């Protein structure tokens, strides 16, 4: 099996098979990683190591050009003296203007990650930033401002997104008032902004309706308008189509696409809906608290001028050089504990260890 960066279909529930860090692959003299000729790589000199360290120190910071940057993010929960690691050194970069989805089995860590990005939870360790805000260093005042102005958040339960005693237009206006955009002289601008957003998202007819007078799909599209009220850098949505039928879910996702394309808003959606995951530009699978694989979709034009969407799946390699192999791959080759790596000129070959001990559970 050759590791070219692609995998089969991600299995969100599969246990990860630990890879090796890049440093271990290059410097190992014990035979786990060999050159094509079968010789161990020559040891790196002290001068070369110093040069590499200086180059790394003087180079651009990790994720500095990304809107969202998560670097070796850790989140540990403690209950009754038992520690649970929801995130185990997760790395993630999201560029400005992306429309992407996070997928994974229940307990994989995707909702924990979304709550951290929304400013609703604080990571235990690592580094995370959104729009220049350091999510580990914010005080209470900065965190409140961040939640009001930098991110918009949409819950799965439609009842959590809108105040029941306000109309949809009043719900959209409220975040503008809370963010300090109050004052009588701004009242007309706030009303115009609310009407504009409801119109863009196809629910202008709900302008004067309260949530109880709206369908579930209308409520979620109005909720997207609320999330967009203060022109946030990113909108985060936790299973926004989970309570909707397929036709209504398509309308709601269409609203996210409209916000992304017309307003330039970055959108990150946690979802179990495969139709949603297949419709975004990039889908990141999270497994066991780490990013495991990505599906990237691009529009290509063939020699006859016909457009088609081409999806390619990649295994992700984190900052420590670790990757996870899909369960169907490991089961097919009876991989249990370890693998052999061979460094070729343009790829790394991954082979199961043929020693009987390695096939024992």
From TrEMBL:
<feature type="domain" description="ABC transporter">
    <location>
        <begin position="71"/>
        <end position="313"/>
    </location>
</feature>
<feature type="domain" description="SpoVT-AbrB">
    <location>
        <begin position="312"/>
        <end position="355"/>
    </location>
</feature>
<dbReference type="GO" id="GO:0005886">
    <property type="term" value="C:plasma membrane"/>
</dbReference>
<dbReference type="Pfam" id="PF00005">
    <property type="entry name" value="ABC_tran"/>
</dbReference>
<keyword id="KW-0449">Lipoprotein</keyword>
<keyword id="KW-0238">DNA-binding</keyword>
<dbReference type="InterPro" id="IPR003439">
    <property type="entry name" value="ABC_transporter-like_ATP-bd"/>
</dbReference>
<dbReference type="InterPro" id="IPR017871">
    <property type="entry name" value="ABC_transporter-like_CS"/>
</dbReference>
<dbReference type="InterPro" id="IPR015854">
    <property type="entry name" value="ABC_transpr_LolD-like"/>
</dbReference>
<protein>
    <submittedName>
        <fullName>ABC-type lipoprotein export system, ATPase component</fullName>
    </submittedName>
</protein>
<dbReference type="GO" id="GO:0022857">
    <property type="term" value="F:transmembrane transporter activity"/>
</dbReference>
<keyword id="KW-0813">Transport</keyword>
<dbReference type="GO" id="GO:0005524">
    <property type="term" value="F:ATP binding"/>
</dbReference>
<dbReference type="InterPro" id="IPR003593">
    <property type="entry name" value="AAA+_ATPase"/>
</dbReference>
<keyword id="KW-0547">Nucleotide-binding</keyword>
<dbReference type="InterPro" id="IPR017911">
    <property type="entry name" value="MacB-like_ATP-bd"/>
</dbReference>
<dbReference type="GO" id="GO:0003677">
    <property type="term" value="F:DNA binding"/>
</dbReference>
<dbReference type="InterPro" id="IPR007159">
    <property type="entry name" value="SpoVT-AbrB_dom"/>
</dbReference>
<keyword id="KW-0067">ATP-binding</keyword>
<dbReference type="GO" id="GO:0016887">
    <property type="term" value="F:ATP hydrolysis activity"/>
</dbReference>
<dbReference type="InterPro" id="IPR027417">
    <property type="entry name" value="P-loop_NTPase"/>
</dbReference>
């Amino acid at each position: 099996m050759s590791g070219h960066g692609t995998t089969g279909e991600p299995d969100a529930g599969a246990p990860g098979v630990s890879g090796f860090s890049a440093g271990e692959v290059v410097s190992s003299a014990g035979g786990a990683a060999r050159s094509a000729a079968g010789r161990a790589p020559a040891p790196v000199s002290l001068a070369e190591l110093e040069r590499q360290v200086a180059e790394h120190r003087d180079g651009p910071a990790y994720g500095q050009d990304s809107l969202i940057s998560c670097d070796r993010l850790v989140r540990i929960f403690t209950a009754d003296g038992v520690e649970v690691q929801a995130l185990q050194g997760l790395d993630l970069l999201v560029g400005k203007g992306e429309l992407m989805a996070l997928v994974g089995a229940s307990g994989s860590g995707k909702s924990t990650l979304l709550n951290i990005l929304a400013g609703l939870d604080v990571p235990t360790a690592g580094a995370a930033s959104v729009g220049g805000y350091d999510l580990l260093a914010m005080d209470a005042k900065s965190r409140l401002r961040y939640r009001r102005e930098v991110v918009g958040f949409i819950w799965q339960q439609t009842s959590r997104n809108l105040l029941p005693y306000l109309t949809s237009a009043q719900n959209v206006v409220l975040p503008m008032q809370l963010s300090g955009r109050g004052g009588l002289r701004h009242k007309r601008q706030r009303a115009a902004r609310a009407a504009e957003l409801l119109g863009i998202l196809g629910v202008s007819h709900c302008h004067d309706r309260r949530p109880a007078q709206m369908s579930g799909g209308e409520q979620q599209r109005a909720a997207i308008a609320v999330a967009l009220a203060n022109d946030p850098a990113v909108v985060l949505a936790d299973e926004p189509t989970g309570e909707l039928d397929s036709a209504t879910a398509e309308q709601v996702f269409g609203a996210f696409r409209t916000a992304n394309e017309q307003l330039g808003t970055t959108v990150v959606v946690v979802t179990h809906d495969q139709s949603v995951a297949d419709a975004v530009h990039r889908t990141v699978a999270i497994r066991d608290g780490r990013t495991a694989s990505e599906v990237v979709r691009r529009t290509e034009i063939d020699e006859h001028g016909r457009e088609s969407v081409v999806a390619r799946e990649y295994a992700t390699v984190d900052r420590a050089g670790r990757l996870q192999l899909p369960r169907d791959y490991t089961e097919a080759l009876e991989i249990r504990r370890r693998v052999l790596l061979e460094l070729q000129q343009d790829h790394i070959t991954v082979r199961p260890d043929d020693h009987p001990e390695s096939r024992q559970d």
